[in-house]
Design a protein that fits this description.
By secondary structure, this protein is of the alpha+beta class. The chain is built from 12 helices and 7 strands. 57% of the residues lie in helices and 15% in strands. Helix 7 crosses helix 8.
């Protein structure tokens, strides 16, 4: 078998895994595909002479490409929060594949990963999600193994939400969970059950134009949110129970939700890009 055919077959055997690695680092299927393609180009140019473990080599190359892309994204201030969902590769099949990937990774996880520094993100993904030892991660992020361990540890605290929820937060989370479930499933009665009669929704995106608009009363709010929260997930927003709206893992709304006596009394929906850049999101 010609060497180029052998390399192509070996690469194709690893392609799906490499795409999964890149997607978790980049949060974008088009960018993940680009990173994997760049790894193939480097392999086809340089060959595999002297490479003992080709799968590990490909993981390292793909990770370094992703790190460069993350650094370039930060330098250009082109985080996806600025422009909403990124354009997907063309075709319904590609969109479906990205949706499946986002669901399998976890929408909230993708949101939290976006808040990490490029090095933290690489270290966490490679170690915690793909079991790569820190001795192999260190040269990728240009740190010592101990420094790479610290990067992953900091990222892990963010991803896992820090401390366990207290009793009050746990009770609030159950209310927010019920609200989002009722909204996703079109359960109007379920929405009414968790909304206070005089609930108020304030939003900087409701009516457009950057102005804060209001919606008052349980019936109006329930009808507005009925069937709406398909991509919303419960999360800690600046340390308080709330929700994020993240189609394909791309956060474009945060919901600050106030709960009193087992019912939602106020929701503030923020979609302003500057607010989204500052907000700290953690999993619960």
């Amino acid at each position: 078998m010609p060497p180029e055919n052998f390399l192509a077959e070996r690469f194709e055997a690893d392609r799906a895994r490499l795409r999964g690695v890149a997607y978790r680092m980049l949060g974008s299927l088009p960018e993940a595909e680009d990173a994997v393609q760049e790894a193939w180009l480097r392999l086809s140019r340089n060959g595999a002479d002297g490479v003992d473990n080709l799968s590990a080599w490909l993981t390292t190359v793909t990770s370094r490409v992703c790190l460069d892309m993350l650094r370039g994204r930060k330098a250009r201030r082109e985080d996806a929060l600025d422009g909403g969902p990124e354009p997907s590769v063309s075709g319904e099949d590609a969109i479906e594949r990205e949706t499946i990937l986002a669901d399998s990774v976890g929408l909230a996880l993708l949101v939290v990963l976006r808040a990490l520094s490029p090095a933290e993100r690489i270290a966490f993904v490679l170690h915690d999600l793909f079991d790569l030892p820190f001795e192999e991660i260190a040269p990728i992020v240009e740190r010592t193994p101990e420094a790479a361990r610290q990067l992953a540890s900091r990222a892990r605290r963010r991803v896992r939400g820090g401390e366990a929820l207290d009793a009050t937060q746990t009770a609030q989370k159950s209310v927010v969970d019920a609200f989002l479930l009722a909204s996703r499933t079109g359960d109007l009665a379920g929405l009414m059950a968790v909304l206070a009669p005089d609930v108020v929704v304030r939003s900087d995106v409701l009516g457009g134009g950057g102005q804060v608009r209001e919606l008052r009363g349980a019936e109006k709010v329930a009808n507005f949110y009925n069937g709406l929260a398909q991509t919303a997930r419960t999360a800690l927003i600046d340390g308080a129970i709330g929700a994020v709206v993240a189609p394909l893992g791309q956060m474009n709304r945060v919901l600050d939700i106030r709960v009193e006596n087992g019912r939602i009394v106020e929701i503030f929906v923020a979609g302003d890009p500057e607010r989204l850049e500052r907000v700290e999101v953690s999993l619960v």
